[in-house]
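INFO  loader      accepted 1 record
INFO  loader      residues=156
INFO  predictor   begin
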Amino acid sequence: MNPSNYSPAMGYQQNRVVSGKVRVEFLCDLCQQLLCRPLQCVCGHQFCTCCIDQWLEQESRCPYDCMTIHAPDHLLPPKVRLVQKMNTLVLKCAYAGSGCAVNLPLPDVPLHEKECMYALVRCEYCNVKVSKRQLTAHHSVCRKRPAHQQRCNSEV
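INFO  predictor   done
INFO  writer      dumping tokens
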């Protein structure tokens, strides 16, 4: 596999940065997005954890062919100064397009996005995707919800 053919973007999209300067050293050497849970190879290349994990499922060498990677021995946490610089970035929520207006420091992004009320979830009854904030309203009209089916059957 050639790194230039690598397509999944696992890092944070650069256009989400609302405050701070994106530097080249903040980018994953595979997906070219802002590093997400960064790891650094002994050779110096930096990757998102998800990107390098996916790469290593098919390959055993650094994507730039400079060395064999025996994870986790050859994958280290990034340098503290890099993390400190990256942590000054402020990003908009990944669900901004769905209405979330929250901007937050990079370290706070994962927890917020996990709990964001604008995140899409699947209805457990009909499998339709709705935002977390709309799920209760959806359940009240979901035709595949057992309580709704009983109510409909008793009205007949």
